[in-house]
Amino acid sequence: MTETPISQRVVVDLTMHPSPHPFVRRGLVKSRVAQLPPTDLVTVRAPGGEILGDAFWNAQSDISLRRLTSGDVRFDRAFLEQAVDRAVSLREGIPRLAEETDAWRVVHAEGDELSGLVVDRYGDVICVELFSAGWVPWLDELLAILHERLGTAHHHVSMSERVARLEGVKRVSIRSRQCPKSLRIREHGVRWTIDLEKKHKTGFFCDQRENRKDVAAWVAGKDVLDMCCYTGGFGVTSSVLGEPSSVTAVDLDEAALEVAKKNANLNQARIGFVHADAFDWMRQISQGERRFDVLVLDPPKFIPTRRDIEKGRGKYHDINRLAIQLVKPGGLLLTCSCSGLLSENDFTDLVRTAVRKEKRRARIVHAGGAAPDHPVLLECPETSYLKTLWMRVW
């Protein structure tokens, strides 16, 4: 690994020694390097002169520094190759992963100590989602390393409008030549279509892989509701693997529902799809007598930023109250939160309050999270973003 003398680096000084968390917020930054573009690497230095490692710098973002290395170690191609190899090796070590699916997370941002970078593999295609502008100058090298290590042929790179605005750069959307607009993957014997043109995030929620399979074990002869179904993940899996009496799937996103219908047809699954707002639809159904034996509630991220915490908490409380009303006595409610800024304890408290407000009783039979290809960095609790509560409700 090439060592660059400290005199030749751009150094950012901090007002105090930070926690081991990979994010360093603006308030801890002593020196202002505003003239640097929001794609530059800098070396971070603590009071007293200790070198803490290299980081992506962004003067505009509230996360001014995204730490990548530790100590006096440079972030360069050699370091990136080692980090990607470590991430891929972790997935290769997950028992039966490649047997059960050809879609998994290759790089889980801070969980793989590559802050701001998410990479999912779908067969021969890698989908890269950027949350830091710092990765843009590294894309050519990153993609070359990934393709060589994975043996893939195509890639799709994106940065959302929201992230681009926060990072102060232009939106990113790059496709390799001959990259397909849609493709098919397999998971636990179920086949899926991924639309890379109209996708949300990287196109498929690999994090719920094991939860989809586990729900199917509960649904034999049951009436199932897949609430906020996106492309039909829980509903289609339950229909194919679980022999339910009926499956209803609801989502507001018309494009996602079109893909969900394709997935149902692809697997000859009989599902009643409903295009509706989750809150409005559940309020309407609660006025009648229709109830469900198994209800999966997997809403979008209600707390994308710290400014959304209170509003998002209210949404989680309200949507869980509505869902609880629709569960038959003795039924199963699987309720989820993908907001990394909401802790597991806080999510459980919100659900507990919702149960009490509805004058119901519930027991948690399992509390889980994301599939094991989504590792959690102990110093970064946000990487444990997906929380799932499996509850029997009376």
Structural class: alpha/beta
Strand tally: 19
Largest beta-sheet details: 7 strands, mixed
Give the proportion of residues in helices.
25-40%
Portion in strands: 25-35%
Quote the average pLDDT. Answer: 94
CATH superfamily annotation of the largest domain:
Vaccinia Virus protein VP39
Rg (C-alpha, Å)? 22 Å
Shape: globular
- In total, the number of domains comes to 3
Q: What top-tier CATH class of the largest domain fits best? A: Alpha Beta
Uncertain spans, ≥5 residues at pLDDT below 50? none
Counting DSSP H or I runs of 4 or more residues, the number of helices is 10
Q: What is the end-to-end distance?
A: 60 Å
Fold-level CATH name of the largest domain: Rossmann fold
Supply the CATH architecture of the largest domain: 3-Layer(aba) Sandwich
Order of helices and strands: EEEEEHHEEEHEHEEEHEHEHEHEHEHEE
- Kindly report the spatial arrangement of strands forming the biggest sheet: 15-14-13-16-17-19-18
What do you see in this structure?
With about 400 residues, the protein is of the alpha/beta class. It folds into 3 domains: about 10-65, Roll (Archaeosine Trna-guanine Transglycosylase, Chain: A, domain 4); about 75-180, Transcription Regulator spoIIAA; about 190-394, 3-Layer(aba) Sandwich (Rossmann fold), CATH 3.40.50. Helices cover about 30% and strands about 30% of the residues. It has 10 helices and 19 strands. The protein has helices spanning about 75-90, 95-100, 140-150, 160-165, 210-215, 235-240, 255-265, 280-285, 310-325, 345-355; strands at about 10-15, 25, 40-45, 50-55, 65, 105-110, 115-120, 125-130, 155-160, 170-175, 180-185, 190-195, 225, 245-250, 270-275, 290-295, 325-335, 360-370, 385-394. The chain has a 7-stranded mixed sheet, sandwiched between helices. A 5-stranded mixed sheet has the order 1-3-4-5-2, with no helix packed on it. A 5-stranded mixed sheet has the order 6-7-8-9-10. Helix 1 packs parallel to helix 3 (about 140-150) and helix 5 (about 210-215) crosses helix 6 (about 235-240). The longest helix has 17 residues, at about 310-325. The mean pLDDT is about 95.
